[in-house]
Write a structure and sequence with these properties.
It is found in: Cell membrane. By secondary structure, the protein is of the alpha+beta class. The chain is about 60% helix and about 15% strand. A hairpin with a 2-residue loop joins strand 1 and strand 2.
Length: about 325
């Protein structure tokens, strides 16, 4: 079921009226209309298209979601795509929810798949800033983009906290190496996903801010500039965190390599020490006469030689930090 709102001169006048009444309401220049279509059918979009004269390419984008964040401008309207995001603290993975917007001079139509995009949070934001509703579609578009960018910022902030926790485990001897690697890879994957939806938002907001589009009036310009500032901060923060996770991952691999080298060094040192008694006992095992052959003192001499040479090698390797 479509959700609708109607503002007259900045005052909310009607809600949840049938979308078929759009053309009747548009006869009054003082009205601004919002229509929300969740999981729209071709018939729903055809109805809105016939009422507003939407371009067929924009309708095609709305039918086939998973577009990149963008603004497509047509003669009578614009089509905007944006994504809200949500971070799962347990898995460290980011999920996205796509939102499409048809924006005319007095109508905003939002298109979304399912309930992943929290349109209720946007409506509450509009109600909190109702004093700006006189700005018409600029007010509606701002509320939508402000909510989207706030989800980006919240996700980046949470990822920053998770990465700080991951940093603390890098040099922790008691930390589980596989678990740390899994979290590092999950965080990197989330940052890649977040980067795909955050970076293009700079161009989206910048395009809407241009005066020739007539979407943003003088009253809404500071609010859109504030959204643009948040977009820049979120994108720069995402890039820095992405580099940081890469550094953490490289550090983990370097630590693993150093630990492996240390183990191999110790194993090699003990192998060299064990080789001494092996060589001496092997030498005394020859079937030829040797000093002390058949004598008790020969046994004690070989034992003393093993202990002496082995101890000397152990002291030498320990001194050079090979053991």
């Amino acid at each position: 079921m479509a959700r609708t709102r109607l503002y007259r001169n900045g005052v909310l006048e009607a809600e949840d009226f049938p979308p078929e009444d759009i053309s009747d309401h548009l006869r009054d220049d003082a009205l601004t209309v919002w229509i929300d279509l969740g999981d729209p059918t071709e018939a729903d979009l055809a109805l809105v298209s016939s009422e507003l004269g939407l371009h067929e390419l924009a309708i095609e984008d709305a039918m086939h979601l998973r577009q990149r964040p963008k603004v497509d401008r047509y003669d009578t309207h614009s089509y905007v795509t944006a994504y809200s995001v949500e971070l799962d603290q347990d898995t460290c993975l980011v999920t996205t929810a796509e939102l499409g917007m048809f924006v005319t001079d007095r109508v905003v139509v939002t298109v979304r798949a399912g309930d992943a995009f929290d349109i209720g949070a946007v409506v509450r934001r509009w109600d909190e800033l109702s004093h700006l509703a006189k700005s018409g579609v600029g007010f509606l578009v701002h509320g939508l983009l402000d909510y989207v960018v706030d989800t980006h910022f919240a996700a980046v902030q949470s990822l920053d906290d998770l990465i700080e926790d991951l940093e603390d485990t890098v040099f922790d001897e008691n930390a589980s190496a596989p678990e740390a690697q899994r979290r590092a890879l999950a965080l990197r994957k989330s940052l890649v996903t977040l980067r795909r939806v955050v970076l293009p938002m700079r161009e989206v907001v910048n395009t809407l801010l241009r005066r020739e589009d007539r979407i943003v009036d003088q009253a809404m310009t500071p609010y859109f500039q504030d959204v643009y500032d948040h977009v820049l901060r979120a994108s720069e923060w995402t890039e820095s965190l992405r580099d940081l996770v890469t550094t953490i991952r490289e550090t983990q691999l370097n630590i693993q390599g150093n630990r492996l080298n240390l183990i191999m060094k110790k194993v090699t040192g003990w192998a060299a020490i064990i080789a001494v008694p092996t060589a001496i006992t092997g030498f005394y095992g020859q079937n030829v006469p040797y000093p002390g052959d058949g004598e008790v003192w020969g046994f004690w001499m070989s034992t003393a030689l093993i202990l002496l040479v082995g101890g000397a090698l152990y002291a030498l390797f320990k001194h050079r930090d090979w053991l």
